[in-house]
Amino acid sequence: MAPPKLTEYEKKRLENIRRNDQMMAALKIHSTVSQLSAATKRQKVGLSKSYKLSPEKKVAKSQSPIVIRRSLRTRGMPPDSGGLDYSVETPDRSPTRISKPRPSPRVMGPLSMRDAYSGTESDRALIDTILFLEKKPQVDVSIKKKFDRCEAVKMEQSDGISHDSVKGVVKDEYLDYGIKIDDKETESCVDVWSMGLKKENIARVLPGRIMAVRFLPCNDVRMIVAGNKFGNVAFWNMDSKGEEGDGIFLYRHHTGPISGILCQQSCLSKIYTSCYDGFLRLMNAEKEVFDLVYSGDDAIFSLSQRPNDMNGLYFGEGRGGGLNIWDERTGRFSSQWILHEDRINSIDFNSQNPNIMATSSTDGTACLWDLRSVNADKAKSLKILNHNRAVHSAYFSPSGSFLATTSADNTVGILGGVNFEDTSMIYHYNQTGRWLSPFRGIWGWDDSSIFIGNMKRGVDVISCSQRRSILTLQSSHMSAIPCRFDAHPCKVGMLAGATTGGQVYVWTSS
Question: What pLDDT, in 10s, does the model give residues 386-438?
Fold first, then answer.
């Protein structure tokens, strides 16, 4: 068979291959590649058949032995062991900034104030001041008394029936649950436009974020109690006048964020504190000890007390919406209810009818309850206010006529009218993020205004009658965002605001 005839392209391709082979043969490339391949194979075979060990390096006698660091767990030592010998010297390193306190173990029992004290100087001045105030009779100048002294006015309603009423005061005949209020604008007992911030009324009392702030309900001394996220509680005597530490005394008797501070005007030497560590403690200045009132496994998120029950403590425990009533006399629960689907953030009682309680929850609701008819099996609320996101607070006005709620859905709710059926939602930006404590709007000294922080380092004043923000308190001295507030229960026009940086600002009216 004759070979196939090649095309011109195939002929040219074969010619190029022969020419390239001649060039490679002239350069001896094929022989060089063969030699390199053979050498590589011999080297691999030799390595697989023999092993060469390097001699050990002898440690010189003059060198110190190498110490391998091992954890306490691998050495079989308890976690609270000191580890190194006390004879070992460590360099003195002073921190350049206030650091996060080290976690301390939970003390199951009483803790002396001396052991909990974190200051360098003695806290004798604070204890003596509190004991002096305890022995001195206090004049009852509560907000309720101020309202009772208001001038009664006559108003003619649309039905032609004339009623005597006091502005902002709840009438006794409506206290069973329905609360009737005067729809007329409540006159303010303080000029909010004159409130200002002085430099001497600013202090950094705590390291880190302040979770709760309270005025000591006292007329003679201006004292503030504040708690932070690390379990510290600080006392700031604003009238210290040259005392050690500028009148600031710092204690650490908790191991987690402080969720509540409770001060009683009837007994100033005893102050309750609640914490995320599940503890309720009582500071007893007479015994100079922090007594353990209650300890649980779940976090305590809120704390309150009924005005007519000084022996009962109401606190929200756990994320299941549970509310506990602790009887301090018997040392046990008097009642336990499940009121919400998520944690309870605030608990408050109506000043005119202490049987009416308000709670706010992360489940997005604020509820009103009648303590006389709460069923332990299935609690039923009197009123439910729904928000789109978590509700951080729900507080009654000083007269008990209104309820103000603060929610993460950027609203402040105001409930009023008979049985609180009138609801108004006021826009307020409440997105504080994870680094700031959530805003909680509080009432002032009457039913006219609500005070709440804003993200521009100011304090917004919301008018209850106009249902809008009418004023923002600002100052060049304000260097941080105020998140938590308290209005002095005895001094009208004195407002305390606490920040994430541990500062406390006290506004006063001229």
Answer: 999 999 999 999 999 999 999 999 999 999 998 899 999 999 999 998 889 99
Query: Radius of gyration (Cα) for the chain, nearest Å?
Result: 36
Q: Which residue has the higher pLDDT, 282 or 76?
A: 282
Please tell me what DSSP assigns to residue 390: -
The pTM (predicted TM-score) of the whole model is 0.72
Upper half-sphere CA count for residue 391 (Cβ side, 13 Å): 31
Please say whether the dihedral angle defined by the alpha carbons of residues 206, 211, 217 and 219, taken in this order, is positive or negative: positive
Tokens representing 497? 């605001």
- 358 CB-near residues (< 8 Å, 6+ apart): 346, 347, 348, 349, 350, 366, 367, 368, 369, 394, 395, 396, 403
pLDDT for 42-71, tens place per residue?
A: 555 444 444 344 455 454 554 444 545 555
Q: Which residues contact 413 (CB under 8 A, 6 or more apart)?
A: 366, 385, 387, 403, 404, 405, 406, 407, 423, 424, 425, 426
Percent above pLDDT 70 for the chain: 75
Instruction: List CB contacts of 350: < 8 A, sequence separation 6 or more.
Output: 170, 179, 356, 357, 358, 396, 400
- Per cent of the chain over pLDDT 90 is 56
Hey, what are 208's tokens? 């880190």
- Rounded CA-CA distance 455/430 in Å is 8
**Calpha distance 495→197 (Å, rounded):** 10
Task: Give the count of beta carbons closer than 10 Å to the beta carbon of residue 341.
Answer: 13
Domains of the chain: 111-140+181-509 (2.130.10.10)
Decide: 341 and 359 in contact? Cβ < 8 Å.
no
Q: How many CA atoms lie within 13 A of 177 on its CB side?
A: 13
